[in-house]
Write a structure and sequence with these properties.
With 132 residues, the chain is an alpha+beta fold. It contains 3 helices and 6 strands; from the N terminus they run ααββαββββ. The chain is globular and about 45 Å long.
């Protein structure tokens, strides 16, 4: 396995356009781990002023993609489940994806989403499939 720097991983995922064009940034990587953040803007809010669930899910999905692929590309999501735990109180979302289990063809990740104040925003589980 080749050691990649954070800058190299960011370059690798710059073409994940939906996430990156909406502001998602990779801030930390580790062994089957990724931390991604999103500075909230008006475009991330719904008609009532709350953060759109889709913005939260996009960040969590991006964190899973980075965590499961930065070391060895070829994992895609088979299924994802998100539970919204509370409203965002801060101005930034933070998603941390950790691998829980890795098998021959599938893997399982947990992603926690908080804001910068420590508010629990969402819990996400993802089952991935290794295509390579």
């Amino acid at each position: 396995m080749e050691n990649k720097s954070l800058a190299q991983v960011r370059e690798l995922f710059q073409d994940d356009r939906f996430a990156t064009l909406n502001g998602a940034q990779i801030t930390e990587i580790g062994d089957h781990f990724a931390k991604c953040e999103l500075e909230l803007e008006e475009r991330h809010r719904n008609a009532l002023g709350a953060v759109m669930g889709g913005a939260t899910f996009t960040l969590a999905d991006f964190a899973f993609a980075v965590a499961s692929n930065w070391e060895k590309p070829g994992t895609v999501s088979l299924s994802s489940n998100i539970t919204y735990l509370g409203g965002v109180k801060g101005n930034r979302l933070i998603a941390e994806a950790h691998r829980v289990k890795d098998g021959r063809t599938t893997c399982y990740y947990q992603v926690t989403v908080t804001d910068e104040l420590g508010t629990q925003v969402a819990a996400v589980t993802v089952t991935g499939y290794h295509t390579a």
